[in-house]
Write a structure and sequence with these properties.
The complex is a heterodimer of chains A (322) and B (311). With 322 residues, chain A is mostly helical. Chain A is 72% helix and 0% strand. Chain A starts with a helix and ends in a 5-residue tail after the last helix. The chains are: A mainly alpha (322), B mainly alpha (311).
Chain lengths: 322, 311
């Protein structure tokens, strides 16, 4: 039977192999799966994880929509995030409830809520990813050095970790925000500076656990420099954990920024962020309850997608989870 | 244990000193300063401004001001609040009790997580576990203060009433006012407890002594109570410590949404008015409370679990 169908199936199968070596041929699902590396195996598992796929699509959609905000505002909505809009009757559209004209209504300054929501997403997402980037770069470096060298470097890194974990985080952020009056980038820097010790702690733990394994010893015997061992041998082995931690960092940063902006110590108006839109909404929730929902829902969906992706990655990298 | 305590206390003291020096330096080195707000007022004379600077010790050179501030702070004297014109701790003592109430009720609510965690672990992979897992993931992704906002909007539009401030009446009114903010504040704790307890119980369930207990024919409820939960819940006490900074920070947002007259809102007010003495006093107090919480957790851990020995 196999022979009879071969003529038709052959090109298809060849096609498959060129796309991905991790995809097993149907006849022997075990072989490719076991032979592939950590990342190929994780990729294989992720492709079969519907929740992670849906979450990824969701996140990509949100990122795309916010990136295209200027285009959408100009060509589809015909609005501007800072402009007082006029309704069809020619009057200023102040605190209009959602309608076909203004899909999510307008705020107290007559600005279109949907336009601001899109523009706010750019800020919130940018801060989320920047913070994650900063804390990953600093945290991985510090965690790696501390875990690899131990001794006083470990003590110093540990002291900083202890410091950050023993300080009321939000209070310090607010304090710094009052003193430094940050813009978007420095805000991301500040939050990132407080985020990296958490990352460092996890990376340090992993590095310490693999540091005395044979392959590190082998590299040392072969005369590899410390730098080479760390970048070529250890980094690839902690990269999966870094990726997972990065996901949770993004989620934490988006939530943190929204809280800070909500309190008025994050992104400053007139620049919109999901957090400060909510603080505007809180002031007039009796007259304009519709302003309370969209920013919160956006934060929720975005963070949910990020958390689910990070969760999926963690399971995909975990050899015990099949 | 004694050495451990001494070492931790010294560490904490250094940490506190570093933080205090750092924050103090920041308040002094930034341009503008606390009197900037006054300088913008049209009818404030330069001479008057100078008198204010002198009175609050803002004309001292930095090293002098620093030594003064540290020695005074060690005696719990943080100068005078720019806004209230009173010692910061006077102002704080009026506002700390509502925050403690809120934190205690929130903590009690967070303990619900223990129950959820046990239920999830005993039903691993089944419906209750799945539901609880969905709940934790969803709750994790929600900004809980936003839920508070939505609840306010909902209550205001349906019953025309929402919790605002502390309420002055009896116990029932007190409860009505505290339950929503405390639930919002405690939600994060519920998630942490649920996850932690679930994994703890699962770990203990897989241990040999549990199998032995079952093998010798003990009833499952007995095994659960004396063999599983007693062991699984030991590390739970440590969560108390890590929950404290969370409570302190979270209180600021919750209090500002619900107009709760506590310390968190006082901190926000101080931040908006750039009331540095008050700001630094609350920051210091919050740090001390957090460190005390962590230390207490470690001590509790050591006493609750005889396997833990501190060197």
């Amino acid at each position: 039977m196999a022979r009879a169908g071969e003529g038709v199936a052959a090109p298809k199968r060849a096609d498959r192999h060129t796309i991905s070596t991790a995809l097993p041929a149907r006849a022997e699902p075990q072989r490719n799966y076991a032979a592939s590396g950590t990342f190929a195996r994780a990729w294989y598992k992720l492709q079969r994880d519907p929740i992670t796929i849906v979450a990824s699509i969701g996140l990509v959609a949100i990122i795309a929509v916010t990136l295209l905000a200027p285009y959408i505002a100009e060509n589809i909505l015909h609005t501007n995030p800072d402009q007082m809009m006029r309704a069809a009757d020619g009057r200023f559209a102040i605190l209009r409830p959602p309608s076909s004209e203004f899909l999510l209504g307008t705020d107290d300054l007559g600005r279109d809520a949907l336009t601001r929501l899109l523009y706010a997403g750019r800020v919130s997402l940018a801060i989320g990813f920047m913070v994650a980037f900063i804390s990953i770069v600093l945290g991985t470096t510090a965690g790696m050095l501390a875990g690899y060298f131990g001794k006083w470097i470990d003590d110093v890194v540990n002291a900083i970790i202890q410091f950050v974990f023993n300080v009321p985080f939000l209070f310090v952020l607010i304090f710094l925000s009052v003193i430094l009056r940050p813009d978007v980038i420095s805000l991301a820097l500040i939050i990132g500076l407080f985020g990296w010790p958490g990352t460092a702690r996890q990376i340090r733990g992993v590095v310490m656990s693999v540091r005395h394994l044979d392959y590190v010893l082998a590299a040392q015997v072969l005369g590899a420099t410390n730098q080479r061992i760390m970048t070529r041998h250890l980094l690839p082995n902690v990269a999966n954990i870094v990726l997972v931690v990065a996901g949770f960092d993004v989620a934490g940063a988006i939530l943190g920024e929204s809280a800070l902006s909500f309190l008025g110590f994050g992104v400053q108006v007139p620049q919109a962020s999901w957090g400060n839109m909510l603080s505007g909404a809180q002031d007039m929730f009796r007259r304009a309850p519709w302003l309370v929902y969209p920013p919160g829902v956006m934060i929720f969906i975005t963070v949910l997608c990020v958390v689910l992706i990070a969760d999926g990655l963690r399971d995909a990298f975990d050899p015990r989870v099949r | 244990m004694r050495n451990f305590l001494i070492r931790r206390l010294i560490q904490s003291a250094i940490l506190l000193l570093v933080l205090m020096s750092f924050t103090f330096a920041l308040t002094r080195l930034t341009p503008g300063g606390p009197e900037a707000a006054l300088a913008e007022a049209p009818n404030v004379q330069p001479a008057e401004l100078e008198r204010i600077r002198e009175r609050f010790g803002l004309n001292d050179p930095l090293p002098v001001a620093y030594v003064k501030w540290v020695t005074n702070a060690l005696r719990l004297d943080f100068g005078r609040s720019y806004h209230y014109l009173r010692p910061p701790f006077d102002v704080i003592s009026e506002r700390i009790w509502p925050t403690i109430q809120l934190a205690l009720v929130a903590y009690a609510i967070a303990l619900v997580g223990i129950l959820l965690g046990v239920v999830a672990a005993y039903n691993r992979g089944k419906m209750p576990d799945l539901l609880i897992r969905v709940f934790t993931v969803v709750a994790d992704a929600t900004p809980n203060w936003w839920v508070g906002l939505v609840i306010i909007v909902f209550l205001a539009s349906t019953v025309g009433w929402f919790p605002q401030g502390q309420g002055r009446g009896g116990a029932w009114e007190w409860f009505q006012h505290i339950i929503v903010p405390a639930a919002i504040l405690g939600l994060g704790g519920v998630i942490v407890y649920t996850r932690f307890v679930r994994s703890q119980v699962l770990e203990v369930l897989s241990q040999d002594h549990v199998r032995t207990a079952r093998a010798k024919g003990l009833q499952e409820t007995f095994v659960a109570r004396w063999h599983v939960l007693r062991n699984a819940l030991i590390p739970v006490v440590t969560l108390f410590g890590s929950f404290l900074p969370f409570l302190i920070s979270g209180a600021a947002i919750t209090e500002s949404i619900f107009n709760w007259p506590g310390m968190g809102r006082l901190f926000l007010e101080a931040a908006t008015t750039r009331d540095y003495p008050l700001l630094l006093a609350i920051l210091t107090l919050g740090t001390v409370a957090t460190m005390a919480g962590t230390l207490l957790a470690d001590i509790l851990y050591g006493t609750a679990d005889p396997r833990i020995r501190y060197s």
